[in-house]
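Reproducibility note. Readers wishing to regenerate the assembly model reported in the main text can use the exact inputs given here. Chain order matters: entities are listed in the order in which they were concatenated for prediction.
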Amino acid sequence: MSLNLSSANQGHLQTIWLKKVQFTYLLVAYRLLLDKYTKLSKAMNRLVKYLGLLLIGIGIITDLVDQSAGSEIPLLVGLFILFISREKREDERAILLKSSSTSIALIIGYGFKLISSNFYAHQLISFQLTDINYFLILVFALALSIYYLRLYLSWK
Amino acid sequence: MKNALKVERAKQNITQAELADKVSVSRQTINSIEIGKFVPSTTLALKLASVFNTTVEAIFILEETDWT
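Running the prediction on these inputs yields the following structure tokens for the assembly.
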């Protein structure tokens, strides 16, 4: 009887040990997958950022050289990509700074639109901000400038 | 709000970058907290306290002006 019990016990212990080994293997596999995903995600973030910068560069040149309608699209898309791209370490401060910078940029941009329209109506300036794309370019450019200034330059 | 993050960091002899790594934020965030420009969330405050083996109240101290 005692012999039977001890063999049953041994079997039970073996099952527990096997389960532990399986769990450890699963944990290691999960960890490796997670590491791979994190590395891939970081590489993708960097790639997206470079793509945004490249499009901004192309967009500025295109917009200066070509005056036709739609020439501002690469610049707008580039700014948008850079705007939605994630930081290397996007923590709570980065998220807070991005949202507050966007609201500041929107207020400045719309204020500029109202003032420029008013000045144009009174023939004080020769241009006005009517195209939505140029308004968005102004807002995105302002938001990104304010965001990166506040993110990397901190003074008391 | 005052904080004793710099003091605690000096006690443990760790750099801003090392602390940032431990609590998964950027070095700039730690710097902003130290100079009082950024007030961290409850989660981050608890993480910081845990790194220094102390309480949140020992690191972050309310000032008179915080009550108004």
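We highlight two features of this model. The interface with chain A takes residues 20, 24-26, 28-29, 31-32, 35-38, 40-41, 44 of chain B (CB under 8 Å). Residues 21 and 27 of chain B are 8 Å apart (CA to CA).
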